[in-house]
Design a protein that fits this description.
Helix content is 23%, strand content 24%. By secondary structure, it is α/β, with parallel strands linked by helices. It has one domain: Class I glutamine amidotransferase (GATase) domain (Rossmann fold), CATH 3.40.50.
């Protein structure tokens, strides 16, 4: 049976179709979900995509975190459903308190777009199990409010409990504390990250690699990880 992974569209979502395409390439069935619905349509996992939901009014992700469907997402996450938040989706996850800390304006106060090196810090989650701990990957990054922040106690806790999923390598593009690029919850089923794995799933459209221009497909393994995690849950 083919896994069904929902992608929620909010007013201002930009990368929902890209996420659906990535899911399809990985071998699952993408399911379009609407922010105003209370129905997850029986999906096996959920992706909160990138964009500028509600125009980033108040704070990025703050209004989207209160959308009707987020009640269902939070309940499903509590039951162990894999949930991935990408960029604006990561902002929603911290605003909904599914992940700790917060995301603020980039330190240089500018929007940034670059192919970003990341180090995999936790390869034991529903969205990272296809990677190796310590592995370096390249994922496209584009954000204006990507600076991760937390108080000292929270930072110590997430470090000690292995909740840092990814760190920026080579350069910290937005001033995130401790170079944090992505987090997981304690259970490992919820992951949020600022870079966009859905833009690195198909040769010819991803980051450049030593092998060829635009050949990077490191992002595909995020979605393949979810499929592996879903199979493991059923077994």
């Amino acid at each position: 049976m083919t896994a069904r992974i929902g992608v929620v569209t909010f007013p201002g979502s930009l990368d929902d179709r890209d996420a659906q395409r990535a899911i399809r390439i990985a071998g699952a069935e993408p399911v379009a979900l609407w922010h105003g619905s209370h129905d997850l349509d029986g999906v096996d996992a959920v992706v909160l995509p990138g964009g500028f939901s509600y125009g980033d009014y108040l704070r990025a992700g703050a209004i989207a975190a209160l959308a009707p469907i987020m009640t269902e997402v939070k309940d499903a996450a509590g039951r162990g459903m894999p949930v991935l938040g990408i960029c604006n989706g990561f902002q929603m996850l911290v605003e909904a308190h599914l992940l700790p800390g917060g995301l603020i304006r980039n330190a240089h106060q500018q929007f940034i777009r670059r192919d970003q090196k990341l180090v995999v810090e936790n390869a034991d989650t529903a969205w990272t199990n296809a990677f190796d701990e310590g592995e370096e990957i390249v994922i496209p990054l584009k954000n204006a409010d990507g600076g991760f922040t937390a108080d000292a106690e929270t930072l110590k806790r997430i470090q000690g409990e292995g909740q840092v999923a990814f760190r920026y390598a080579g350069v910290n593009p937005n001033g995130s504390l401790d170079d944090i690029a992505g987090l997981t919850n304690e259970a490992g089923n919820v992951v949020g990250l600022m870079p966009h794995p859905e833009h690195a799933v198909e040769p010819g459209f991803g980051p450049a690699t030593p092998a060829a221009m635009r050949s990077g497909v490191d992002g595909l393994r995020f979605f393949e990880s979810a499929l592996a995690a879903l199979v493991a849950r059923v077994a």
